[in-house]
Amino acid sequence: MSDIIPAEGGMTPDELADMLGAADAPQSVKIPTLKINSQGEDKDGNQIPLGAFFLNTDDERVYAKDGVVLHALSNHVQYMHWDDGRLVNKSRLIINKRDEARDQLGGTMCGMPTYEQSIQMTPEQRKEYEGRDRYRVIRGLVSYTGKTASGEERTIENEPVILSLKRKNYGPFYHDVIKRIPSDGKFFNYRLALTADKQTTDKGAKYYIMRFSPDLQNKVTLDQKLYDSMNAVAGMVKAENERIDKSYFDAIARKADEAEQDRIMKEVNTLEHDF
After folding, report:
1. Higher pLDDT, 183 or 115
2. Closest by alpha carbon to 214, among 180, 175, 248, 165?
3. Which of 15, 43, 50, 153 is the most buried (most CB within 10 A)?
4. Which of 100, 25, 91, 98 has the alpha carbon at shortest distance from 237?
5. CB distance 53 to 74 below 8 Å
6. With contact defined as beta carbons under 8 Å apart, do 240 and 93 qualify?
């Protein structure tokens, strides 16, 4: 704690640091993602069941094919651009297409074309947008009992989790949950049993689609515990959107500055040519 006493009406040292751009960067909360195992073994060579759900953490992972229950607390759309395993850009978390998906680099939707635009493109034109995808991002709590790669049984109970679902995994939440719940309910009023639907491509490759089965017979009422969980998730969404909006407007300002510098240099070059 600082011993400095601010002048009357003045800012505290922490407020000064924030104003001058020297404040510590905010520490974001790291929430594990929920995934489906599509590999026959883990990074250590241990055999693990295909189609099993697991939390993608640095700790010893717990795998389960049955009894995985998700309590979804948020449902957003987000555009991301990945290149060689590195996140290049991402958009705000939006509710639907009517919201502007501003992104970190001063554009929208990470430059991803609309569906109508993409179907008119040639294969070569589509290659320019590889790595850009639309994701359904779901935050919630997951519970299940499973086993580690070494065979130890463990129980996961109401663990905060994120689902980032793209392409063929993008749509099932809408069709399985949003379209099925009663008109007087919300998706967070129902716990969802998860299953992995095995699919095969035309070339014989195997992959899994995450499916959701809402427990429509047991509606979850809004109590203090659920309200607090939803409030925490809302805070995370708000904080992420604020960070992305700041990057967006900073990028817009940089582009404007660069354009102005280019204009000035052109005028200088014109004057030099005249003389």
Report:
1. 183
2. 180
3. 50
4. 91
5. no
6. yes
**Coil, helix or strand at residue 30:** coil
- Report the alpha-carbon distance of residue 81 to residue 79 in Å, rounded: 7
- Report d(CA 172, CA 180) in Å as an integer: 11
Helix (H, G, I), strand (E, B), or coil: what is residue 94?
strand
- What is the per-residue pLDDT across 235-249, written as a single tens digit (0 to 9) for each? 999 999 999 999 999
Residue 231 backbone dihedrals phi, psi, to 5 degrees: -65, -40
What's the Cα-to-Cα distance from 168 to each of 31, 143, 204, rounded to whole Å?
A: 23, 24, 16
Average pLDDT taken over every residue of the chain: 87
* Contact indicator for 140, 147 with CB cutoff of 8 Å: no
Q: Give the other-Cβ count within 10 Å of 189's Cβ.
A: 19
pLDDT at 14 over 90: no
Q: What is the pLDDT of residue 251?
A: 94
Task: Report the C-alpha gap between 90 and 80 in whole angstroms.
Answer: 4
What mean pLDDT do residues 119-136 have?
A: 92
Quote the pTM value.
0.82
Task: Yes or no: say if 146 and 98 are a contact pair by the CB < 8 Å rule.
Answer: no
206-220 pLDDT, tens digit per residue, is 899 999 999 999 999
Question: What's the burial of 85, exposed, middle or buried (CB within 10 Å: 0-12/13-18/19+)?
Answer: exposed
Helix (H, G, I), strand (E, B) or coil at 86: strand
How many C-beta neighbours within 10 Å does residue 30 have?
9
